[in-house]
Amino acid sequence: MSLLARISAHTDERLTHRVGIGLMLLAVFVFSFGDATGKFIVATTPIGQFLCLRACAALLLLSPMIWRKRQDFAKLERPGLQLVRVAFSTTEVTSFFLATVYLPLADVVTYYLACPIFVTALSAIALHERVGWRRWSAILVGFAGVLIALRPSPQSFSWPALIALCGSFSFAGLMLITRHLRRTPDVVMITSQFVGTLLFGAVLAPIGWVTPTPWGILLFAAAGMISVCAFLCINRSLKLASASTVVPYQYSMIIWAVILGFVVFGDMPSPATLVGAAIIIGAGLYIFLRERTLGREEPAVGTPDDSPLQSKFRFEGLFLKNRLRKSRCTLS
Fold it and tell me: Distance of CA 172 to CAs 36, 89, 145, Å?
C-alpha cells in the first residue's frame, strides 16, 4: 500500500484533510507553472502543434499506468457523455492557451476563477438543482466581478477575452460532467482528455508547423509532464478530502499567475483585474460555504491503491453520512 493510501486509511480525519489541501496547493502551483510554460511556447509555436506535442509527451508519461490499468478501458461508463466531456476538455485547454497569446496570464486566470460560479448557475439551469436566493445573489455578484475584470468597452471587449470566457464556460461544463462520471477510473479520465487534445492538435498541427529545436522538445516534454503531475495531484486531493474542503484553495492560482506573469513576461495586472478577481473569489468562496451549510458537498473517496472493497465501503459510508446531513438540513 502506498503512502497516500495509508494516509487515506488513517483514522485521523484532520491528517487526511491536511494532505488533501497540501496536494491541492501543490497542484495549483504546478498548473500555474505549466500555464506559464505553455504561454511561453505558444508565443512562437502554433497552438495546434503545441497541443499535439504536449499531449504526446503526457501520453508517453502515462503509458506505464495505461498498460497496468488497461482493463479499466474495457467498459466505459456512459460513452456518449464521455465524448462530450472530452469535447469540453479540448475546448477548455485550447481556449486557455489561445487566450494567453494575446492576454496577460493573470487576466486569463481571472476569467477561469469564475468557473465555480458558472458551475452553480449551470447546475440550476441544466440540471434543475435547487439554488436559493443567497447563491443566486452570489452568482450575480460573481458575474459583476467578471465584468469589472473584463472592462467592457469598444476598445477592451476583445475576442481574446471572449475566448477566455468560452474556456471558462467549457471548464464549468467539464466539471459538471465529471461529477456524473465519478466512478470512471482516474487513468481513463486523464487519458481520454489527452487523447482528445492530441487528435484536435494533430488536425491543426500542419498549419504553420515549426520544426522544434532540442530546447523546444524539452519544453514540450516539460509541459506534458507538468500537466500529468497536476492532474494526478488534484485527483488524489479530491480522494483524500471533500471537494468543499480543497477546491477553495484553487483560488491561490491568481497569486502564482500574477507572480509568474510579472517575473517571466513582465505583465502587470491592471487594478480592474485585481478588483474583479477579488470579487469573483469572494463570491466563489460564499458559494462553497453555502454548499457545505446545506450539506451538498461531495464526499472524498478512497485512493486508487485501495482494494475495490475498501473503496466501496469508504465511499458508501461517506455517501450515507452525506445523505443524513442533507436530511437534517431539510428538516431544519
Answer: 22, 10, 17
